Amino acid sequence: FVFDVSHQSYPHKMLTGRKDAFLYEEHYDDVSGYSSPHESEHDHFTIGHTSTSVSLACGLAKGRDLKGEDGNVVAIIGDGSLSGGEALEALDYAAELDGNLIILVNDNDMSIAENHGGLYQNLRLLRETGGKAECNLFRAMGLDYCFVADGNDIASLIEAFKAVKDSTQPVVVHIVTQKGKGYAPAEQHKEAWHYCAPFHPETGEPLMDMSGECYESITLDFMMKKMQADPSVCMITSGTPTVLGFTEEMRKKAGRQFIDVGIAEENAVALASGIAANGGKPVYGVYSTFIQRAYDQISQDLCINSNAATIIVAWGSVYGMNDVTHLGLYDIPMLANIPNLVYLAPTTKEEYLAMLDWSIEQ
């Protein structure tokens, strides 16, 4: 099994000898938040970023075939992760494999927020037709296809898995599920509950006071005023709109000046370069850990062309996300060598707003 992103692999960890970490406080730190070969032979990769599972699974399957071995290779990926270029590249290649590869697509019609991109029109069509629509993204890639209408029903899943287990060709199992299933607040407010701090299970209220000013709210207020005053200013995100405070309500208020390209950092940077080249004022907000996914586009598409785009890199330093896959330490040393890039690091709110204003108006 190869889990995409892999922060959904907790049940897998419980079933592979690591349940004590979820039961006893003294064992909490025995496991990480993601899959890890250091923890178990059942975890084949350390994975924390999106859209990678199908590529990695293709590699495992090819390695199996080169050694003349048998066995299942299963990639598990959510519909939101399909918007990442690597996932589409891997689906395109998967048909070349002449052997068992099972790609489980968990489709809950959500990324972190709502999905963005043309392929989701086809996923909707497949859901509405019970997988029978002639237009089928996965079949167009040369893959066999199986549809499960109720992915929250265990019996339906078992029946589908039995049907594909001994497949000798790559096959996609398209599973329709409900995000947050089983916990009413998460079912009703899917985006807000994608991630949450510790909370009271009975009420859903957080255990800590999360109110007050923060860089997300500061940025949101500044950008909303900028966009209202200047229609050429736009805000870009790659699937993480609340990185800079843009909740669903604020995204609707910003209208076409807010752009979500899906989980596709490369496209976000190149898009920003194109907007700037045609007289727009693009601002791309991204977590430090994800900016590394767009190194080539920053260097080639943006900086060599000297286009005036702004990139706000959030959650840098050791105080960002704390798993080894999500460290915010690398953006400055990685990007500092790129010609034509100005990297500013504010130490106060006042410096931040001054730098942001200068960057947009330069």
Structural description of this entry:
By secondary structure, the protein is α/β, with parallel strands linked by helices. Helices cover 37% and strands 13% of the residues. The chain contains 15 helices and nine strands. It has helices at 10-18, 20-23, 53-66, 85-94, 119-128, 137-140, 154-164, 184-188, 215-229, 248-254, 265-277, 288-291, 295-303, 331-335, 349-361, and strands at 2-3, 74-78, 101-107, 144-148, 170-176, 233-237, 258-260, 281-287, 310-314. The strands form two sheets. A five-stranded parallel sheet has the order 1-2-3-5-4, sandwiched between helices. Strands 7-6-8-9 form a four-stranded parallel sheet, with helices on both faces. Helix 11 (265-277) runs parallel beside helix 13 (295-303). The longest helix has 15 residues, at 215-229.
Rg computed from alpha carbons, rounded to a whole number of angstroms:
22 Å
What's the arrangement of strands in the largest beta sheet? 1-2-3-5-4
| Percent of residues in β-strands | 5-15%
| Helix-strand topology string | EHHHEHEHHEHEHHEHEHEHHEHH
Overall geometric form:
globular
Quickly give the structural class: alpha/beta
Helix content: 25-40%
Summed up, the helix count is 15
Average pLDDT works out at 93
Q: Calculate the terminal CA-CA distance, rounded to whole Å.
A: 49 Å
Low-confidence stretches: none
Q: How is the biggest beta sheet arranged?
A: 5 strands, parallel
Annotation, overall tally of beta strands: 9
